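Exercise 7b. Backbone tokens:
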């Protein structure tokens, strides 16, 4: 289940989403890639005290991301900044893309956390900077494992990888 707090976006972006609600992921993805006059992304989900709301508590998302990072890198994760948190979140999605989650001995299923993490704009941006042509099929496979908005994000990223390749 996903709900969203209002995202802070320019009026033009809000109008584009209202004109074509089915394509909201692509519209917001494009808006996040454009930079404003201060050289920061023009839209953000961090204009409030909480991220996109899911039924996965943020602390569980962070715990899963940390446990996966520890297991896949072989060393304890160090979190000293927001950038470190984003790197952990991107690492969780990358582990899912590379089909490494099922081999880990985790105390909980990581899949709800992967889905919740995939709808964080900073994670989508961080992940998109690291995608290669070979990731297109992986993104489609991951989309088949996830529900709703997270699956849409995967498919949109896959289309982007295919268009660049």
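Sequence design result:
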């Amino acid at each position: 289940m996903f709900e969203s707090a209002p995202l802070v976006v320019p009026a033009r972006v809000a109008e584009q989403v209202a004109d074509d609600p089915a394509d909201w992921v692509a519209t917001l993805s494009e808006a996040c890639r454009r930079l404003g006059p201060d050289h920061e992304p023009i839209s953000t989900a961090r204009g409030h005290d909480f991220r996109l709301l899911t039924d996965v508590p943020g602390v569980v998302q962070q715990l899963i991301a940390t446990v996966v990072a520890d297991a896949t890198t072989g060393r304890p994760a160090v979190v000293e900044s927001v950038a470190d948190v984003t790197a952990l979140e991107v690492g969780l999605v990358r582990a899912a893309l590379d089909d490494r989650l099922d081999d880990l001995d985790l105390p909980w299923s990581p899949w709800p956390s992967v889905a919740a993490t995939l709808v964080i704009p900073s994670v989508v941006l961080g992940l998109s900077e690291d995608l290669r042509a070979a990731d297109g099929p992986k993104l489609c496979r991951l989309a088949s494992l996830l529900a709703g908005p997270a699956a849409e994000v995967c498919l949109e990223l896959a289309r982007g990888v295919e268009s660049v390749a």
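Instructor comment: Residues 148-164 form the longest helix (17 residues). Helices lie at 11-19, 24-33, 58-73, 82-97, 111-118, 121-128, 135-145, 148-164.
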